[in-house]
Design brief:
The chain is an alpha/beta fold. It contains six helices and eight strands. The relative contact order is 0.18.
């Protein structure tokens, strides 16, 4: 698929030292996140429980210096938390309104020195080339509530493979339990090994799980 890419603007960094914390709470990162107009149940313009869970998990200085790509960022609550913890982050979304919302939230937190925005349609070669031009490779790819639509799984998996390095890149996905996540994880097994799956506790959420994957070594791939 070929399509036009869009990269968000960059501003100066003014990161508060208090943003770097080990406390596992969604507000621990100190980020302020505004929601947009959510026109549907699958809108990324609002903060869902899976996003709060991802924010909590990414609010750790252990991410300092890591290159992180967030897929389907929506409000950016997860990616902004990683940036506040010291990571170099690219927040991405296919929706133009969410891209604008992401730019506003990044600027509101003075995190533009660590966090950039890209329009990214999964499976779109032009968009993927633009994002690859920002960081080249990523240590961690993350996403919240991106496993609800099986018709998008082929493109999602293709995008994960494009941005991951064999034997190195990890993937962190948070999601409420449905029947769909098992479908995706079975498809992903050819390229990614499952490190762990656990229920996320805290952040005021219930029935939200996290699965961590790692890209398989190149020699493990089946022809």
């Amino acid at each position: 698929i070929r399509c036009r890419c869009q990269i968000g603007s960059m501003l100066l960094l003014a990161l508060s030292p208090s943003a770097l914390t080990l406390s596992p709470a969604p507000a621990a990162s100190g980020v302020r996140v505004s929601e947009g107009a959510a026109s549907s149940i699958d809108s990324g313009a609002r903060i869902w429980d899976a996003g709060l869970a991802l924010s909590m998990l990414l609010s750790s200085p252990a991410l300092a210096g890591k290159r992180v790509l967030e897929l389907g960022s929506g409000t950016g609550v997860g990616g902004l938390s990683a940036a506040a913890a010291g990571a170099q982050v690219v927040c991405s979304d296919a929706d133009k309104e969410c891209v604008l919302l992401l730019e506003e939230n990044i600027a509101a937190n003075s995190l533009s020195g660590r966090c950039r925005v890209a329009k990214l349609v999964w499976g779109c070669e032009d968009d993927e080339e633009c994002v690859l031009g920002l960081e080249g490779a990523f240590d961690l790819i993350c996403g919240s509530d991106v496993l609800y639509a099986p018709n998008a799984f082929d493109d999602l998996l293709s995008t994960l493979v494009t941005f991951s390095t064999p034997g190195e890149t990890e993937v962190m996905l948070t999601y409420p339990t449905r029947y769909t996540e098992s479908i995706f994880l079975e498809e992903a097994a050819a390229h990614f090994e499952t490190l762990e799956t656990f229920e996320v506790e805290g952040a005021g959420v219930e029935n939200v799980y996290c699965t961590r994957l790692r890209r398989r070594d190149a020699e493990e791939f089946s022809p």
